[in-house]
Amino acid sequence: MVGVFEVGAVPFNPDGWGPPDSTTATAPSTTTTLPLHVPFAPFSRSEKLGRIADFTRSFANANPSNRPSSGKPGAASSESPFDFSLDLDTFPLANPEDDSSFRLVDAKPPTRPKFGPKWRFNQHRPQLPQRRDEEVEARKREAEKERARRDRLYNLNRSNQNQQRREAAIFKSSVDIQPEWNMLDQIPFSTFSKLSFSVPEPEDILLCGALEYYDRSFDRITPKNERRLERFKNRNFFKVTTTDDPVIRRLANEDKATVFATDTILATLMCAPRSVYSWDIVIQRVGNKLFFDKRDGSQLDLLSVHETSQEPLPEAKDDINSAYSLSVEAAYINQNFSQQVLVRDGNKVSFDEPNPFANEGDEVASVAYRYRRWKLDNDMYLIARCEVQSVVEVNNQKSFLTLNALNEFDPKYSGVDWRQKLETQRGAVLATELKNNANKLAKWTAQSILASADLMKLGYVSRVHPRDHFNHVILGVVGYKPRDFAAQINLNTANMWGIVKSIVDLCMKLNEGKYVLVKDPSKPQVRIYEVPADAFENDYVEEPLPEEEQVQPPAEDTEAGEPNGTTNDVEAKETETQT
After folding, report:
1. Would you tell me how many other CB atoms lie within 10 Å of the CB of residue 204?
2. In terms of Cα–Cα distance, which of 175, 172, 186 is closest to 528?
């Protein structure tokens, strides 16, 4: 039997829309079946519609705090005017038996047993990427800390070893100190930094020799269009000491000055605080005159390499990268470079006298000697022989040039590859050379200032291969004004002359005789020894290597620039180091 749904009587409102104010007034005889006490709730479009009735609500588990039982919109509250119980007689379809069979669909995934690898993987799967990233980052940080710790320990141990090796490599004195020598004084370098002395402009006493013009095309050389370093076998180079110079002897006999020296010796004294290797200068007091000399076979004839660097060089003397071998190689490079960058067309600028050390008919390297005199005191003058290697015309005026070459032997020692950095980062290359060869560059600058050269040219010469010390290439040439470059490298002219003046004043107080000024090999100081009159003439000359230790080079590797007689030992010293 089908049930009939009875709507009931609907009262009529003759006064307007909506239910009447009183149903009894309009239809007193009508009996209503509507639920009583149901309030009328006004409706606004801005309000959200909720549920008309919540059949899923359980009154047994009602919220005692009178707060909504659900955070969802439309959830009924215990204070809601529509919170009432349905009358089963009025709504017969609301059968409690139907509620027992009603089930909600649960969208949660079924629980799995908490065992087995699948459960562990699935449980941690949502956090796995984040946890893995954190673990990887943590491991990277730990690895970086460990690597940094190892690097610190390695560098610390290496610096200690390098310091020991460095000291061992330079511990040998440039001259053997004999027991009979009497040490008169020792001067620490710290006192040199406080000295200052101004000298007036020098005057030229005499100019000798001849100069060739500088080839400006070498200023355009780059590592991409490098030039091979040539060898000048027929040109003679001279490194004559002060007392063996006939011009200085003549000027001494004429009483032109009181103190005599060469630019190499003066530059060594002026830049003494920057030196690391040991060196020595022979001082002879004859009457009221003072002569600064160098020994035969002295280190002053060579050019130091990596003298002020912290990277140690091989200790074996026959190694091509040892300090001695590099010094010989640098002297050989410097000689050939100074002749290759010239215009060799026979056009020369001659001076008052020819080269005082050359024999008639000899081919002499392009060099001019300027004998210059400085006033040190009211009755004290100093004459020094200064060298310039070339000349160039600037605005129809001749300007003197000094030519020197820096040499690269192995980029791993300097840390800068010239072929890659010279064209784009020339300042970085020069800064590295100033750090590794501060003394050599300062001496070159001092010599240029002493000779009043208008320009000093620095060449960058590198080996063709790091293990080939016979063949070289020119990678670039840069020019500087000597005084500007001196200011750049913090070389004070007044301090330079202050050092020379203090040593001259000290030596002028000594008695007549022979003395030697030795730079201590392990400490920043110099010592003055009184030596016999016949010292350094026969017994104190450095002995060559035994014949069984000498290795003769191949014919094609014979070095260029052989000096005349015994004036330069670069050729012989290079032969000792060839392997």
Report:
1. 13
2. 186
CB 297 within 8 A of CB 542: yes
* Length of the chain, in residues: 579
The predicted-structure confidence for 341-392, as pLDDT tens digits, reads as follows 999 888 889 998 999 998 887 888 999 999 999 999 988 999 999 999 999 9
Environment class of residue 412 by beta-carbon count within 10 Å: exposed (0-12), middle (13-18) or buried (19+)? exposed
b/e for 268-300, b at 16 or more Cβ within 10 A? bbbbbbbbbbbbbbbbbbeeeebbbbbbbbbbb
Residue type, 242: T
CA distances from 255 to 195, 250, 288, 380, 383 (A): 28, 9, 10, 11, 11
Tokens of 325: 């071998």
DSSP symbols for 68-136: -S-SSTT---TT-TT-----TTT-TT--HHHHHT--PPP-SPPP--S-SHHHHHHHHTTTHHHHHHHHH
Which amino acid makes up residue 515?
A: Y
Instruction: Taking each helix axis as running N to C, give the angle between helix 323-340 and helix 570-577, from 0 to 180 degrees, rounded to the nearest 10.
Output: 130
- Give the number of other CB atoms < 10 A from CB of residue 481: 14
Q: Within a 13 Å sphere around the CA of 36, how many CA atoms are in the beta-carbon half? A: 2
Task: Give the Cα-Cα-Cα angle 445, 448, 450 (nearest 5 degrees).
Answer: 110
Residue 146 domain flag: no
Domain interval for residue 509: 182-531
- What's the rounded Cα separation, in Å, for the pair 363 and 357? 12
Are residues 236 and 249 in contact, defined by beta-carbon separation less than 8 angstroms? no
Q: Decide if 527 contacts 183 (C-beta within 8 A).
A: yes
Strand order in the sheet with 280-286: 182-188, 525-531, 513-519, 280-286, 289-293, 259-262, 380-388, 367-377, 203-212, 348-350
Q: What is the largest CA-CA distance in the chain?
A: 162
pLDDT in tens, 389-443: 999 988 888 899 999 999 998 888 877 889 988 888 888 899 999 999 999 999 9
Domain count, the chain: 1
- For residue 563, what pLDDT band results from cuts at 50, 70 and 90? very low
577 is a domain residue: no
10 falls within a domain: no
Q: Is residue 6 part of a domain?
A: no
Structure tokens at 360: 């008639």
